[in-house]
Each structure stands twice: as structure tokens, then as C-alpha cells.
């Protein structure tokens, strides 16, 4: 049987953590033949550490055959030791009345410390996924704080936007979500992201031709996907958690095990593709094979798409500028 791999999860006692850990431990992320050791990180605060103990008791009570070990940590330097996968979920989302500069300062401190810890103690092949918002900029900070690790190992989660877009398209066309291929989401995980179905197909047929309604694209589809997070908060009183955890599982599983040619969306550091400046943590359509992602290149960018991509890029460059003193 396979040797266990180490999976670190931060914010492990939070909402997303609660929807995520049990699925990782059951083999949904890395395969039903891959044992895992969970290295869980929470803030040192007594309440958070107690909550983490409770989650660990429940993980134990599931008696998962693939769960080869569970550790609780309050310091990233021990939590990330030799870790093969790191899901950085814990962060400080924007609270009511919080200034942008304040948000960037708090998260800047968290993600520089975590990036440095990964740099020092993680496996040299660690695959890092940042979920905690602002996800792209947090991933950028962590990447820049880990100069000894390959930059390509740092990614941000755009998969929830991708899945939301797929679900809206399935509903609009009356087709099964599993049949949708070649969907892309460009840019920042924020309402400025650009969900793009111009290349998408269902059963080999063009989704754009099937929908044939540019007004729906611009006035219904894009705002619905962009504001979905806010709609869930308004309805549930809490931010999306199970769907976010599900997207994190999808992202890591596809990266580790491959997509079989299917396009998925990942936030990854640019190498200049599609005119995005180098190192910007940008949502791109990718395929994955042998543990590596590859950007889908050569897609035509029309005037409307260019405008949308510029808007989300400008926002990201602004965020990046706001944290440049940390880097
Ligand atoms: P939550 O508040 O329920 O849980 C967050 C947990 O992280 C808390 O238990 C907290 O103690 C912990 N934490 C905070 N700072 C930490 C640190 N430095 N080290 C370790 N743990 C730390 O929040 P929830 O709902 O689980 O969301 C987590 C993050 O994910 C938020 O930033 C949220 O905005 C973001 N999110 C991102 C999505 C995406 O698509 N990229 C989708 C949905 C949420």
C-alpha cells in the first residue's frame, strides 16, 4: 500500500475546515488508495484550539481507513513540517467597517509568516492552495515569502467561481453539468472575475451558440456568478463553506491526479501568458497532468473579453501594490 502523504490545513476549526477535513480523510481529494496525515493549524487562542480538539475527536470517530495520523498545531513552522499539500484556509475576511489597508495588513502578516514557514520546513514539492481571502493576493504574498520553493507551487482558488459558472450554464441550457467542457474563469477571485463560456462545449456543441444571448451573458450570467458569494451570505447569514470546501477538493484532486484533458480554472502565477504581467496570481484555464498544470494557450481574446480581463487585472495589481512593502 502507498506511503502516507502529509496534508496541512490552516483555519482547521473554521466553517470551511469542517466541510473539508472529513472529505480529505475519506480519500476524496487524493484518491481512495492514498493514506493521509492531517497537520492542522489554528490560531493559539484557547477557544480556537479547543474547537480544533473537538474536530479531531470527530475525525477519530469516523475511523477513516485512510487517515494515518492527525496533529494539532498553533505554529506554522511545526504545522507545515514536510508537508506535501498545504491548504491555506484561515485568514481574516473583511469585517464590517474594516478599511482595505487594515485587511491587507492583517492578512499580509499571516501570509508572510506562513510563506516563510513553508519555505523553511515544507516538502520541496509542496502544492499550496490559498483559499482564505483575498485569495489571489494572499497566495502572491506567500509565494514571494518562499523564495526557495518553486513559484509555480503556489496557487489561489478560482475553482468555486468555475463551478458556479458551470452550474449556471447547465441550468440555462438544460444540460448536465458534467457534460460542460472548456469553460474558463479569468482573473481575481472577486466579483471582477471574468467567467468566459465562448469556447465551452456540451456534447461537442458550442455553448455560446446554444445560448445565443449576449445580453444574458453580460447582464445576468456574469453578475450572478460574480455576486454569488454575497447572495449566499444574504441568504444563509454565513459565507459559503461546503461549496468552497468542495472547490478546494476539486482543485487539489485535479492538480494531483490530472484532468484527463478537461479544462479547469486555477489561480496561478503568470509567466506573461495573455499579456498578464509576470508573477501576478491570475485565474487561467488549465489542464493538469502528472502533478503539473499547464495553461491553455492560444485562445482568442475579443474586445469585450479584453475589457473584462483588464478590469480584474487592474484590481489585482492594485491589491498587489497595497502589499508591496511586505515583500
Ligand atoms: P471561519 O471564520 O469560519 O474560519 C476561519 C478559521 O481560520 C478560524 O477558525 C480562525 O481561527 C482561523 N484562522 C485565522 N487566522 C489564522 C491563522 N493565521 N492561522 C491559522 N488559522 C487561522 O471562515 P471560513 O468560512 O472557514 O472561511 C475561511 C476563509 O475562506 C475566509 O477568508 C473566506 O473569505 C474564504 N473563502 C474563500 C473562498 C474562495 O473561493 N477562494 C470561498 C469562500 C470563503
TrEMBL record:
EC number: 1.1.1.37
Catalytic-site annotation from UniProt: 189 (proton acceptor)
InterPro entries linked: L-lactate/malate_DH, Lactate/malate_DH_C, Lactate/malate_DH_N, Lactate_DH/Glyco_Ohase_4_C, Malate_DH_type2, NAD(P)-bd_dom_sf
Positions bound to substrate: 94, 100, 133, 164
UniProt keywords, alphabetically: NAD, Oxidoreductase, Tricarboxylic acid cycle
GO biological process assignments: malate metabolic process; tricarboxylic acid cycle
Gene Ontology molecular function: L-malate dehydrogenase (NAD+) activity
Lactate/malate dehydrogenase N-terminal domain residues: 5-154
Binding site for NAD(+): 11-17, 107, 114, 131-133
Domain (Lactate/malate dehydrogenase C-terminal): residue spans on this chain: 159-324
Catalytic activity: (S)-malate + NAD(+) = oxaloacetate + NADH + H(+)
Pfam families per the UniProt record, alphabetical: Ldh_1_C, Ldh_1_N
HAMAP family: Malate_dehydrog_2 (MF_01517)
Xref: PANTHER family: MALATE DEHYDROGENASE (PTHR23382)
UniProt similarity note: Belongs to the LDH/MDH superfamily. MDH type 2 family.
Role played: Catalyzes the reversible oxidation of malate to oxaloacetate.
Protein name per Swiss-Prot or TrEMBL: Malate dehydrogenase
The gene coding this protein: mdh
Amino acid at each position: 500500500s502507498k506511503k502516507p502523504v502529509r496534508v496541512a490545513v490552516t483555519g482547521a476549526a473554521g466553517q470551511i475546515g469542517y466541510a473539508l477535513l472529513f472529505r480529505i480523510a475519506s480519500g476524496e481529494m487524493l484518491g481512495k488508495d492514498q493514506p493521509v496525515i492531517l497537520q492542522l493549524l489554528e490560531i493559539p487562542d484557547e477557544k480556537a484550539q479547543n474547537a480544533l480538539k473537538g474536530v479531531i475527536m470527530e475525525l477519530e470517530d469516523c475511523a477513516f481507513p485512510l487517515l494515518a495520523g492527525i496533529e494539532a498545531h498553533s505554529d506554522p513552522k511545526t504545522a507545515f513540517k514536510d508537508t506535501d499539500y498545504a491548504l491555506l484556509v484561515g485568514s481574516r475576511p473583511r469585517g464590517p467597517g474594516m478599511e482595505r489597508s487594515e485587511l491587507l495588513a492583517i492578512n499580509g502578516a499571516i501570509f508572510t509568516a506562513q510563506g516563510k514557514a513553508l519555505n523553511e520546513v515544507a516538502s520541496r514539492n509542496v502544492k499550496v492552495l490559498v483559499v482564505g481571502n483575498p485569495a489571489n493576493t494572499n497566495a502572491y504574498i506567500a509565494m514571494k515569502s518562499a523564495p526557495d520553493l518553486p513559484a509555480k507551487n503556489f496557487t489561489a482558488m478560482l475553482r468555486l467561481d468555475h463551478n458556479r459558472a458551470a452550474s449556471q450554464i447547465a441550468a440555462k441550457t438544460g444540460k448536465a453539468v458534467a457534460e460542460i467542457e472548456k469553460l474558463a474563469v479569468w482573473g481575481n477571485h472577486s466579483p471582477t472575475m471574468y467567467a468566459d463560456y465562448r469556447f465551452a462545449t456540451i456534447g461537442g456543441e458550442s455553448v455560446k451558440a446554444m445560448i445565443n444571448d449576449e445580453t444574458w451573458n453580460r447582464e445576468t450570467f456574469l453578475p450572478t456568478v460574480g455576486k454569488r458569494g454575497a447572495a449566499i451570505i444574504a441568504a444563509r447569514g454565513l459565507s459559503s463553506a461546503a461549496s468552497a470546501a468542495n472547490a478546494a477538493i476539486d482543485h487539489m484532486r485535479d492538480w494531483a491526479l490530472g484532468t484527463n484533458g478537461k479544462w479547469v480554472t486555477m489561480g496561478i502565477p503568470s509567466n506573461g501568458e495573455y499579456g498578464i504581467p509576470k508573477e501576478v496570481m491570475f485565474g487561467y484555464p488549465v489542464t493538469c497532468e502528472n502533478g503539473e498544470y499547464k495553461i491553455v494557450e492560444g485562445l482568442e481574446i475579443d474586445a469585450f473579453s479584453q475589457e473584462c480581463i483588464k478590469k480584474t487585472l487592474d484590481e489585482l495589481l492594485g491589491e498587489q501594490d497595497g502589499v508591496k512593502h511586505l515583500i
